[in-house]
């Protein structure tokens, strides 16, 4: 798989989702943002928040509070922290516990999406996540009796099945030939995107997605459907928690 870029930055996290530490060169920097030539900080998107972490350089630490997507990927330093000047070699490190929790959560949402689509035929209308807690909105007119427990049980059966989660790139035309590749009610893949990143929970759910994921459903942990809320006009919001 080729290296992905955003502006001048090679995005390492899309090729290796387990990468937490790497060396990089500072291309430009200031208190507003730092641009590296290579970064594994996930910049946020698809409901997944940006990573946090640190840059280490010359015995100094710069804490990274988030990432901004402009022409370049700008790492946002914590206010008041020293900033490495352009030309400095730094070691970047993503905060592991948070990222791993977000990967488990993001994969958990795909699992939920796959189960609800398979068992009830519903499309997703929205979603959002924080580490180990998330919500997903579905276009579901009627909530069948026992729905909450049935969905939870079905999700955990898929966790136990330990399905592989594969990530691959396909040319746009080929990707859109896959049935139901877009599980959202609106197609969110911009027309200029020629290579579509596909996340495949093998045998359950295949969809276009730009986030980071664990390698198998077992790594998600137990899925708890905490709440089903009625948001009107057939929209149902499912709130989930991911447990060890």
From TrEMBL:
Keywords: Metal-binding, Zinc. Transmembrane segments: none annotated. Residues 1-244 form the Alanyl-transfer RNA synthetases family profile domain. This is Alanyl-tRNA editing protein. Its cofactor is Zn(2+). SMART domains: tRNA_SAD (SM00863). InterPro entries: Ala-tRNA-synth_IIc_core (IPR018165), Alanyl-tRNA_Editing_Enzymes (IPR051335), Thr/Ala-tRNA-synth_IIc_edit (IPR018163), Transl_B-barrel_sf (IPR009000), tRNA_SAD (IPR012947). Its main location: cytoplasm. It is found in: Cytoplasm. Gene3D superfamilies: 2.40.30.130, Threonyl-trna Synthetase, Chain A, domain 2. It comes from the Bacteria.
